[in-house]
Specification:
This protein is an alpha/beta fold. The chain contains six helices and seven strands, in the order αβββααβββαβαα. The longest helix has 11 residues, at about 135-145. It starts with about 40 loop residues before the first helix and ends with a helix.
């Protein structure tokens, strides 16, 4: 049995709702009286006649979405008293023990070749309009902060200016723009711009293109 009180078959993320919102079958999320002739406001009905619109959050390309899952127990119910093993405190001086004095640098990879000023990484920001339209702030901000940023899947495949020859990419404006925005603001070798790939990207040779054509 799953410990979840997830809402199903009705969500603002897919612009669906129950006709009998106050009376829903817990096991299925369906209206307690499913009526012949209903226009299909729930996910079951909407899937039947506009299927692709309930696969992704709507309006697609203009939103990011969060889960509506509710669990009986989550981490907020616990107080975890952790220990910073191996940490060394700064001199007990109020003028020296200040936030900017904290060193959060990390390094990883072969010969510790990738250095981050701060220990976080932005995951795949892909081919949707919301990713493309907000890339400038993400790229410049993460580059100046010395952290990592990932170009998500299918950016080349969704680029109307991409040039494909014999099934391989030979030019793409969007991927070059994304890499350039990051690298133009990168400082002292900190941070990394990373290209994620799916099946389509691999077939198009996106990884090879990114390495060979955008490294300078």
């Amino acid at each position: 049995m799953s410990l979840t009180f997830s809402k199903i078959n009705a969500s603002a993320a897919t612009l669906t709702k129950n006709r009998t919102e106050g009376s829903v079958v817990p096991a299925s999320g369906m209206c307690v009286t499913c009526v012949d002739g209903c226009i299909g406001m729930c996910e079951i009905g909407k899937s039947a006649y506009r299927g692709h619109e309930v696969i992704y959050p709507q309006p697609f390309g203009m939103v990011t979405a969060a889960a509506e899952k509710t669990y009986p127990v989550d981490y907020s119910h616990f107080n975890i008293m952790g220990t910073a093993v191996g940490a060394h405190g700064i001199e007990p001086d109020s003028d020296k023990a200040i936030f900017p004095a904290v060193n959060l640098e990390i390094a990883f990879g072969h010969d510790k070749g990738i250095k981050y000023r701060c220990p976080w990484h932005i995951p795949g920001i892909g081919s949707t309009n919301i990713a493309k339209n907000n890339w400038e702030g993400l790229a410049i901000g993460s580059a100046l902060a010395g952290t990592g940023l990932t170009i998500g899947e299918n950016v080349v495949g969704m680029d109307p200016e991409a040039v494909i020859k014999n099934g391989r990419v030979v030019d793409t404006a969007d991927l070059k723009r994304r890499v350039k925005l990051y690298k133009d603001h990168q400082r002292d070798g900190y941070g990394a711009i990373i290209v994620q790939a799916n099946v389509e990207d691999t077939r198009l040779g996106v990884q090879e293109y990114a390495i060979e054509k955008t490294r300078s």
